């Protein structure tokens, strides 16, 4: 049960024995706990699985604390980020405390499992840096984008599934393929929602990714469909606050060229690949279908 994961996370944080960290940790909004849920679905719902899920969720929480500093984000899952309520230094240090505690606890596990998870955190960190670097100029390269989201998002989801499989003697490779493709599709859907959802649903302005410099898949597809003059207009809008005229121009062009629908098609293909890797696993397949339908 996911409550077991929450309890294990709280226990691990209490073990750090530093009340400031415990208090700040309690203010974080937990989110969907997707990675821990995957571990619990792949392994039996026992204490060992919950502990592995807790470790991975602590790493994920730490990465988001750092990401909000890097992105200058005021909100995380509808609540004020730690860098907003406290300051950036505190957010970074809390992240350091959480991920180092997670790594200490990871040493209790088989070295193969510890390696699988810790190597994913290196990939995660590389992905974050790629994301920031790619945001400095307009990126129109689909493969670069896919490599970046593979590192930034899919790596830890892939490692969650593969390490859970290792824990219970299942096929590490097949579950890894499931996790990787789920992660890629998840990020593409996230990037689509930034374009199609409204500000109220997102908790941040629509098209915010592009304003922040992130050329996600629909922008890459659109760029290649536009004529030279419109290509220039799109590039000139990159990484700037958009006027309402520019926002509606981008949305109209995306409608014309079906950039969002084409991105959704790729997410669907990746999801199908994930489904194919875990045939007969109804619950894991359900996670994919729910993820494809999500609207927030
Ligand atoms: C969210 O991206 C960010 C990530 C999924 C990874 C962040 C990774 C690091 C900061 C590396 C450091 C790792 C540790 C363990 C400290 P996003 O900005 O696209 O998504 P968002 O809209 O949820 O912020
Ligand atoms: Mg961010």
Overview in brief:
This protein is mainly α and 296 residues long. The chain has helices spanning 2-16, 19-27, 34-42, 47-71, 82-85, 88-106, 111-134, 142-167, 172-196, 199-202, 208-211, 217-225, 228-237, 244-257, 259-277, 282-293, and strands at residues 75-76, 79-80.
Report mean pLDDT, rounded to a whole number.
95
How many DSSP-defined strands? 2
Assembly state: single chain
* Gyration radius from CA atoms, angstroms: 19 Å
**Which ligands accompany this protein?**
farnesyl diphosphate, magnesium ion
Helix content class: over 70%
Strand content: under 5%
Largest sheet: 2 strands, antiparallel
**C-alpha end-to-end distance:** 24 Å
Spatial ordering of strands, largest sheet = 1-2
Shape: globular
Number of continuous helical runs: 16
In the predicted model, the low-confidence regions spanning at least 5 consecutive residues are none
How do the SSEs run, as a string of H and E?
Answer: HHHHEEHHHHHHHHHHHH
Structural class: mainly alpha
């Amino acid at each position: 049960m996911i409550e077991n994961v929450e309890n294990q996370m709280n226990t691990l944080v209490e073990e750090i024995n530093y009340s400031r960290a415990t208090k700040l940790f309690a203010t974080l909004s937990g989110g969907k706990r997707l990675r821990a849920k995957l571990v619990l679905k792949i392994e039996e719902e026992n204490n060992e699985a919950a502990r592995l899920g807790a470790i991975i969720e602590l790493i994920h929480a730490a990465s988001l604390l750092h990401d909000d500093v890097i992105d200058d984000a005021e909100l995380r899952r509808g609540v004020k980020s730690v860098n907003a309520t406290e300051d950036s230094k505190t957010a970074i240090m809390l992240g350091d405390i959480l991920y180092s505690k997670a790594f200490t606890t990871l040493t209790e596990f088989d070295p193969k499992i510890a390696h699988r998870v810790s190597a994913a955190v290196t990939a995660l960190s590389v992905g974050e840096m790629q994301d920031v670097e790619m945001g400095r100029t307009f990126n129109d390269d689909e493969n670069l984008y896919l490599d970046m989201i593979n590192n930034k998002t899919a790596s830890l989801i892939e490692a969650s599934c593969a390490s859970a499989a290792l824990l219970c003697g299942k096929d590490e490779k097949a579950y890894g393929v499931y996790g990787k493709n789920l992660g890629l599709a998840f990020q593409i859907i996230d990037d689509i929602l930034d374009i199609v959802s409204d500000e109220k649903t997102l908790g941040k302005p629509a098209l915010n990714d592009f304003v922040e410099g992130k050329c996600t898949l629909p922008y890459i597809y659109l760029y290649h469909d536009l004529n030279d003059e419109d290509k220039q207009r799109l590039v000139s809008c990159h990484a700037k606050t958009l006027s309402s005229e520019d926002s509606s121009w981008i949305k109209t062009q995306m409608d014309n060229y079906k950039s969002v629908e084409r991105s959704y098609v790729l997410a669907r293909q990746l999801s199908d690949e994930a489904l194919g890797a875990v045939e007969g696993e109804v619950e894991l397949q359900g996670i994919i279908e729910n993820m494809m339908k999500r609207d927030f």
